[in-house]
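Running this now, will post back.
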Amino acid sequence: MSSRRVLHCIPGLAAGGAERQLGMLTHQLPRYGWEVHVASLRGGVFEEELAPSTIVHRIPCRGERDPRIPFRLAALIGRLRPLLVQTWLTLMDIHGGLAALSRHMTWIATERNSALAYQVRLTNLARALLLPHADALVANSRGGLEIWKRFGARQVQRIIPNAIGIRDCAGAALPAGIDVDDEVPLIVSAGRLSPEKGLRALLRAIAEVRREVPAVAVICGEGPMLDELQATARALSLNGAVIFAGHVKDVAALLRRADVYVSISRVEGSPNAVLEALACGTPLVVSDIPAHRELLDETTARLVAGDDAAAVAAAIVDCLRDREAARSRAAEALRRTALWPPEVVAGEYDALYRQLLAAKETG
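Update: finished.
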């Protein structure tokens, strides 16, 4: 039996920022001597991107709120006997947190948002009650940590930024299924297709952009709004002008080809896709929210009201017409931003794990 076993609990492995981060982490933690196990309720595209050494445990359930989930996770913990349990996202902060507490396990919770963006509902209230009992809380942004400072939680709290694993893909072909002429201005957006990402406003903005510039947009990601967004694109006569690409594994090649990257989310934590675009030197148009302000300002990006389609369109057109200024802002953004490679982020987690275990031994 391994004495260096960690269990990560996440609701699923579909396309998303937390799932991407966990995927990168599974490749790096074994270098520090950790045997990585992942418990999830369902699979997804990121299951293929977990390290081959990762052991995945599928928790049977009848929906995400099945009351048997914490008991089944507790049973898994009893069989595996990991040194630590780390939970990701609201549902597993609840299910996995309850299981870890019931087994008196060292528990690390994660905060992926930068503000109290959660609606007042039972799951979020339950999470707010549980997380102060975690041994540690890891946020990926300053704003995320502020949430729990306001709650008065007293556990170990640490900011560990999102890892950015961008490979050099200069001159690489666009991902399969995406065919955009080199002469056509390209707008890219990536992320979960969900309401908080502002994608309806983005489609309206793209329709306005095309009245002035014959641009094409590629929207990467999966999520519950796909059918609605495709219908909106058709209603706006954007047929052929917007490509819904689904999960794109090699997004860096697309970002390097893009003339502008757009993120007009209402809420974010540490935005993975924005960081990836920044690392690729792609000009940015982003919503003026705290998570983006933590990384960018008017000298490094165009910041706009994300729900104002006209303002978003104007910022995109400005980037497409004044390419030199847009690229200059992008270069300044890259110069001023500290990007964390996956091996460094894994080292931060390893140091936290060791700190918690040492405290447990001496306590």
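The chain has a mean pLDDT of 91. More later if anyone needs it.
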